[in-house]
DNA sequence: TCCTGTCGCTAATACGTATTAGCTATTTAT
DNA sequence: ATAAATAGCTAATACGTATTAGCGACAGGA
């Protein structure tokens, strides 16, 4: 119980009747140095190591080698406390999978308290060889410092330049959104609305960009650049504008609108098509399968982790990767009914 | 890009015109030593630190202090690869929550490859101050070594002695199982069956123990000490024995039996009651709410983490805690129909 | 004037490992 | 027999920090 002082190479050396240096050489000598230690000695040392169960202290190892085979995972929004869990989980799975395949362990930064700062007094992050950063909204000052600094990192999700290009793996939301717009148009929709922010986080901007690029001037009948507005208000605006199809960035808004519409006797998608920009975890539990696109969260996380390892091990140059987002058919996008059309 | 060599205290010292020791004292001096550094000097050093954005290398820190504020998480069964994810997730959430509250970060041991050994060549575990161990089935040799060693750890789930008492936080399955048996008996069940292993992992043994303690000799009509047997075979045996109620350890078995029973025109719970010993994640998705008991996974993980910190920080003695498992009403346990009773 | 004490700082060391330079004893070449 | 080479090891050092012992300068008291 009384913390029997950890074994060190010195102890092993003493037991085997050699020097500490010899123990270290036995443990991880190059072929060159190995050839200079006779099998007899090596076996004697190895036996002591086996018997005692000695393992090298990874801290001391990192001290001298500089590398740890540990990757940090930092999240801006507090990631775990149940609420956000569903957002974080698939990313974590992807990171873990890639890390395991590459022989790395993960250091989960809990952000000790509320701070959520990379550069604090307690920057334990640097214990890792590099770091994956998650979160919708980054602190741009910190991001700039990271870019300027020498600590390897990769962001999950596209990031604008911050005093230099940011290495990232993101979802290619713009074309995915455009594709859904095209699909709506091919169904015959000519009066389309947009509900969601159009500025702020990169992911938001990308969606709006993809949307506005694909939709014609005449077709965009109204936009509500906010989220969480009362659904009945939204619906009033949509109907007043004569929209037959609405693009929504937030699943909760979509659910609320769908509810409100049904309670007014409107049919989805006949009277109103709803498209959600990006799938959400547990989406299957909301009852309705919204037309949307798939965000390849695990694949993003895997790719980011692999990129990070490339940067750590080979000092690879900055890469920026956007992964394709597959459209999800769903059942909330259909041809506008003629009734609705005339109602306009 | 060219890894601009990390700042050290020596650099700071040079810039501030003091010695490395002074920098260290400014950073984390005791009140005693602080009083011996005039405000002027301290401010000068602090300014340089602010300007350069220097942060102490946590590795070197751990080297000398011995502690890291990092907790390891080791899982025997490979934890992440999606399949097992649901088992692992609630535990991880609990650990993370407690770790965050206590100001610790988490080191997730990926087990690099298939090995899943604590004592391997690559035991990076010891970088942490202590370790939480998860998994249904432990390697007993390793457990014994852990118990004998001086590295603080806590198991999630009860563990038999391994050359000494194992510190753990588990679920109190035996009384939870007994309570369900009592409940079945109070419904009038007198012909009860058991399906599941009765030896092996501690959690399995506890369930069987709790069951056999509460059920009378005469009431246990049949037992099948295996899992995953074809449901129709099981059902034949149950009906032949005239069982009115069956206790099942594995959810999959319960689901299969329920299916098979319904396709034979039997009604659950009228013709056959089914009790599952322990709730399962995503249980709500299987359609039927099985009568069972709740395993407080997050609470177990939290408690284990807190216990671990006690051991790390205060060298606290071994504790063994079993948390209460609340019964889950469900709808698969009811009074046996008189028809079934006579059928016997 | 000399002794004592305090202030403000620094030199030195430990932590556990990896690694290089180099030492001693033995063998080989001449 | 002597020089050169080689085998088999070890001493020494670096990594970056925390911490203790203690040094020099100056102040105050006798």
Structural account:
The structure is a homodimer. Chain A is of the alpha/beta class. Chain A folds into 3 domains: about 10-55, 434 Repressor (Amino-terminal Domain); about 70-170 and about 295-325, Rossmann fold, CATH 3.40.50.2300; about 175-295 and about 330-344, Rossmann fold (3-Layer(aba) Sandwich). Chain A contains 13 helices and 12 strands. Chain A has helices at about 10-15, 20-30, 30-35, 40-50, 60-65, 85-100, 140-150, 175-185, 200-215, 230-240, 250-265, 295-315, 340-344; strands at about 70-75, 105-110, 130-135, 155, 170, 190-195, 220-225, 245-250, 275, 290-295, 320-325, 325-330. The first copy, chain A, has a 6-stranded parallel beta sheet, with helices on one face. The first copy, chain A, has a 4-stranded parallel beta sheet with strand order 7-6-8-9, sandwiched between helices. Chain A is elongated. The N and C termini of chain A lie far apart (about 80 Å). The model of chain A is unreliable at about 340-344 (pLDDT under 50). At the A-B interface, helix 5, helix 6 and strand 2 of A face helix 5, helix 6 and strand 2 of B. Strand 2 (about 105-110) of chain A pairs antiparallel with strand 2 (about 105-110) of chain B. The structure holds a DNA duplex (30 and 30 nucleotides).
Q: What structural class should be given to the helix and strand makeup of chain A?
A: alpha/beta
Strand order of the largest sheet of chain A: 2-1-3-4-5-11
User: Could you please say which CATH topology of the largest domain in chain A applies here?
Assistant: Rossmann fold
The biggest beta sheet of chain A is recorded as:
6 strands, parallel
Q: Determine the N-to-C terminus distance of chain A.
A: 80 Å
Tally of helical runs of chain A:
13
Quaternary class: homodimer
Runs of chain A in which pLDDT lies below 50 for 5 or more consecutive residues are 340-344
Order of helices and strands of chain A: HHHHHEHEEHEEHEHEHEHEEHEEH
CATH classification class of the largest domain in chain A? Alpha Beta
| Assigned CATH superfamily of the largest domain in chain A | Response regulator
Number of separate domains of chain A: 3
Number of strands of chain A: 12
Q: Which radius of gyration of chain A do the C-alpha atoms yield?
A: 27 Å
């Amino acid at each position: 119980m009384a913390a029997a002082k950890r074994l060190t190479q010195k102890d092993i050396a003493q037991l085997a009747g050699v020097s500490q240096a010899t123990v270290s050489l036995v443990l991880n000598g190059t072929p060159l140095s190995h050839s200079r230690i006779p099998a007899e000695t090596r076996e004697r040392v190895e036996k002591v190591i086996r018997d005692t169960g000695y393992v090298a202290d990874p801290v001391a190892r990192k001290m001298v080698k500089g590398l740890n085979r540990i990757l940090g995972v930092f999240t801006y929004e507090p990631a775990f406390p149940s609420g956000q869990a569903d957002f974080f989980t698939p990313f974590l799975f992807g990171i873990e999978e890639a890390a395991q395949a590459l022989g790395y362990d993960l250091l989960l930064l809990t952000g000790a308290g509320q701070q959520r700062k990379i550069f604090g007094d307690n920057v334990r992050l640097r214990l890792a060889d590099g770091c994956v950063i998650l979160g919708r909204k980054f602190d741009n000052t910190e991001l700039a410092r990271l870019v300027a600094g020498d600590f390897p990192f990769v962001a999950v999700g596209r990031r604008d330049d911050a005093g230099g290009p940011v290495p990232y793996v993101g979802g290619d939301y713009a074309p995915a959104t455009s594709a859904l717009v095209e699909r709506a148009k091919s169904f015959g929709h000519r009066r389309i609305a947009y509900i969601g922010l159009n500025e702020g986080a990169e992911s938001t901007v990308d969606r709006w960009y993809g949307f506005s690029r694909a939709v014609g001037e005449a077709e965009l009948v109204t936009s509500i650049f906010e989220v969480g507005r009362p659904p009945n208000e939204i619906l009033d605006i949509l109907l007043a504008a004569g929209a037959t199809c609405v693009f929504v960035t937030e699943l909760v808004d979509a659910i609320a609108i769908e509810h409100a519409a049904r309670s007014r006797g409107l049919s989805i998608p006949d009277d109103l098509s709803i498209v959600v920009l990006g799938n959400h975890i547990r989406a299957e539990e909301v009852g309705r399968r919204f037309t949307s696109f798939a965000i390849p969260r695990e694949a993003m996380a895997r790719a980011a982790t692999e990129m990070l390892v490339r940067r750590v091990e080979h000092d690879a140059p900055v890469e920026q990767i956007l992964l394709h987002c597959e459209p999800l058919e769903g059942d909330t996008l259909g041809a506008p009914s003629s009734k609705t059309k005339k109602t306009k």
